[in-house]
Design a protein that fits this description.
The protein is of the alpha/beta class and 234 residues long. It has six helices and eleven strands. Strands 1, 2, 3, 4, 8, 9, 10 and 11 form an eight-stranded mixed sheet that branches. It is globular, with a radius of gyration of 18 Å. The model has no long low-confidence stretch (mean pLDDT 93).
């Protein structure tokens, strides 16, 4: 089965449709599938629901799709750093389902494992718990959270072989792995595709069984918050 495609548009061909649900990897500005997001923007696909830790910034990550009004709903744990995200939510233009960060990661992981729901203490007694089933275990109250089952997963990895085995670099591993598993189809963009057999099996973070299509491309290295010392006086 062919998994390596020439570019993002080709890799997404036949997968996009209006109103679809997409799980996207990335953490802050790290590990964002920027090439695939650019291709979704160019395709004009609209009324999208995204499950992603955050939406990047105004001109990077999912933020570019917020600018073009292609996103209908975000399922996220963090809104900061993106002024347009906050503006659309506060003005009622964008639906937002807030999730605690660990809960969101577990909802993706659960979906990838075929688990429809799980109970967690996180959020009990807060607005997060409103409208959700409550259940007591050993004298403690838990709320039911649903697993995430997306139409498409898009992720960004460091290295891959042509069978789709992926290695992520440091922080990029956080949400990319669970996001990749919970989509009906997973498309990955990588910095480098290496020969089959050259990856140490013990170092593979995501087996190729989860990955349907791969592209290689050049990626922008952004720093979310640059902190420097004041130059010392001579």
């Amino acid at each position: 089965m062919k998994k390596v495609y020439a570019n993002a548009a080709e890799a997404l061909d036949g997968l996009l449709f209006d109103g679809m649900f997409i799980a996207a990897g990335g953490f802050g500005l790290c590990g964002i599938p920027e090439l695939l997001l650019d291709a979704i923007k160019d395709a004009g696909t609209k009324d999208l629901t995204f499950a992603s830790n955050n939406a990047g910034v105004d001109d990077f990550g999912i933020g570019i799709l917020l600018q073009t009004r292609q996103v209908k709903k975000m399922i996220s744990s963090y809104v900061g750093e993106n002024a347009e995200f906050m503006r659309q939510y506060l003005s009622g233009e964008l639906e937002l389902e807030f999730n605690p960060q660990g809960t969101l990661a577990e909802r993706m992981r659960a979906g990838g494992a075929g688990i429809p729901g799980f109970y967690t203490k996180t959020g009990v007694g807060t607005v997060i718990a409103e409208g959700k089933e409550h259940k007591d275990f050993n004298g403690e109250t838990y709320i039911l959270e649903n697993g995430i089952f997306a139409d498409l997963a898009i992720v960004k990895a460091w290295k891959a072989d042509d069978t789709g085995n992926l290695i992520f670099r440091k922080t990029a591993r956080n949400f990319n792995v669970p996001a990749a598993t919970c989509g009906k189809v997973c498309v990955a963009e990588v910095e480098e595709i290496v020969p089959r057999g050259s990856l140490d099996p013990d170092n593979i973070h995501l087996p190729g069984i989860y990955v349907n299509r791969i592209i290689q491309g050049d990626h922008e290295k952004r720093i979310e918050q640059r902190t420097t010392r004041q130059k010392e006086e001579a």
